[in-house]
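testing teh design pipeline on a random one, pls ignore if ur not involved
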């Protein structure tokens, strides 16, 4: 094989490879020998078909296989000979006009990973902000949970439903007088004002009472998951069977027992564990951001443009998806466009930090064990339908890139933990509000790095932005992750039923998760829950 370097510019490399016809012919011979025992031809015993007849019958396919294997091996030999570390899969192009029996002329183009000087991990100084999980915080979490466990009790039959009440209805939907699939239901519980159903549906239930029959006129949103209902005006004939009002939730031993726990003290114990986990998560988030800021400020090297572009596209697609569900998508998108350069700088930072953390991990023997990897794969497989999970596992086992994508977050966390152990850490007790403000502030989304002119150890105060703009916390949340690859796509979800549920909702405030025992014992609010919303596309 003849190799000639044709481009060496920054991190870009390009080579011209010539694979001789003799080499390809030798591989064809190997292919013939490999398939000969399985070839069947009239007049010949199995495995006794002459090689020249095999070439005549399967020459095209055998030559193609031989050429592909020669190219694969040629690229591997090139990488080894030139000691190249490709950033992404090399682009291999076969010259036009190639014919069987001739030399194969190839062009191999790639970007290589930069040579990173041994990263210095000396002198790291971090402040660990801690928040005590006191009784006040625990009770606040229990009250938050109690609000989620909202119960409703039957109201007098003359009671007119108001916002915050729950009505139990039967409904039948139609478009242009024709019923549609999934548009009929019985005993559906609707909390007026919850925003669970398509716009206008809940509002028209205000004032109804038991026994009322009413036709609700609504329009399906343009983003509704059922194609033939998108943007369509519809009518829902509803019959009101019950009106219920919120029941007061008293937090006492009886409340705890309703959740399957022995007492309120036991509930407090469980909730304290949860609060501690949340607060520890905030502490870690703050420390990690400060650590990454220090690493970014101390290291500067070129990063492969294709990796940056892939990272930016991943970030931008997610942001575009999010703004498409704002009240005014066009205005939100216009505001987002103003921050395009900031997010591209974040993509550069993430790629650089990803390479840096990888280099640190390799230099200090940080590893993800096979057992941990298997656990990660099985966890990722749970996102898929049961019938697709084994296929997903096999795909990851065969595809190195997919496996690397799943491995990356845990590997990054392990390297971060290693650096925490090496850093000089001082502790300071703060309130939850203070640590949340510290996390969200961080200089209004400024991308820290070499030459930015900032002292990266100082505390930043929150900077106000116009309400329509993405908050600084959004940029910080994007910036925090170093260089995680995009996850493999999920298997498509089954079609959503065409009931009047919204296809999307705006992000809600983070809800408290119920303790395991409570989750097991909680009773459903009504016989049938409102229809599920379609999952947001990844």
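output:
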């Amino acid at each position: 094989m003849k190799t000639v370097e044709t481009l060496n510019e920054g991190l870009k490399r390009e080579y011209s490879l010539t694979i001789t016809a003799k080499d390809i012919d030798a591989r064809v011979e190997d292919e013939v020998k490999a398939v000969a025992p399985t070839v069947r031809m009239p007049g010949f015993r199995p495995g006794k078909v002459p090689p020249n007849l095999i070439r005549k019958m399967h020459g095209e396919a055998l030559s193609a296989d031989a050429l592909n294997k020669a190219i694969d091996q040629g690229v591997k030999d090139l990488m080894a000979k030139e000691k190249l570390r490709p950033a992404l899969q090399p682009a291999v192009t076969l010259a036009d006009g190639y014919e069987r029996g001739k030399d194969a002329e190839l062009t191999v183009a790639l970007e290589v990973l930069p040579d990173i000087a041994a990263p210095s991990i000396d002198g790291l100084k971090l402040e660990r902000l801690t928040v005590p999980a006191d009784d006040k915080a625990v009770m606040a979490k229990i009250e938050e949970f109690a609000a989620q466990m909202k119960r409703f009790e039957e109201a007098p039959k003359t009671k007119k439903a108001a916002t915050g009440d729950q009505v139990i209805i039967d409904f039948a939907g139609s478009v242009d007088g024709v019923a549609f699939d999934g548009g009929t239901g019985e005993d559906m519980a609707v909390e007026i004002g919850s925003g669970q159903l398509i716009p206008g549906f809940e509002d028209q239930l205000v004032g109804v009472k038991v026994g009322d029959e009413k036709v609700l006129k609504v329009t399906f949103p343009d983003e509704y998951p059922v194609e033939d209902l998108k943007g369509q005006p519809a009518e829902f004939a509803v019959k009101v069977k019950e009106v219920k009002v919120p029941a007061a939730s008293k937090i006492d031993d009886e409340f705890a027992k309703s959740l399957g726990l022995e007492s309120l003290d036991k509930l407090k114990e469980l909730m304290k564990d949860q609060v501690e986990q949340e607060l520890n998560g905030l502490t870690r988030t703050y420390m990690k951001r400060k650590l990454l800021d220090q690493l970014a400020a101390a290291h500067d090297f070129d990063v492969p443009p294709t990796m940056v572009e892939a990272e930016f596209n991943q970030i931008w697609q997610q942001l575009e998806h999010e703004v498409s569900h704002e009240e005014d998508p066009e205005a939100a998108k216009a505001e987002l466009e103003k921050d395009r350069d900031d997010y591209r700088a974040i993509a550069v930072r993430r790629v650089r930090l990803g390479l840096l953390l990888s280099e640190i991990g390799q230099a200090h023997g940080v590893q993800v064990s096979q057992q941990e990897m298997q656990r990660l794969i099985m966890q990722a497989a749970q996102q898929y339908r049961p019938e697709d999970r084994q296929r997903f596992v096999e795909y990851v086992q065969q595809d190195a890139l997919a496996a690397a994508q799943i491995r990356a977050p845990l590997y990054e966390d392990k390297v971060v933990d290693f650096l925490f152990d090496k850093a000089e850490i001082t502790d300071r007790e703060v309130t939850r509000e203070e640590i949340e403000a510290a996390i969200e502030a961080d200089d209004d989304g400024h991308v820290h790095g070499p030459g930015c002119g900032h002292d990266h150890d100082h505390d930043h105060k929150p900077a106000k932005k116009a309400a329509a703009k993405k908050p600084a916390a959004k940029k910080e949340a994007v910036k925090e992750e170093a260089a995680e690859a995009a996850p493999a796509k999920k298997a498509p979800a089954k079609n959503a039923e065409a009931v009047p549920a919204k296809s999307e909702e705006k992000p809600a405030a983070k809800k408290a998760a119920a303790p395991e025992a409570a989750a097991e014992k909680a009773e459903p609010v009504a016989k049938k829950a409102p229809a599920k919303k379609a999952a947001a596309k990844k």
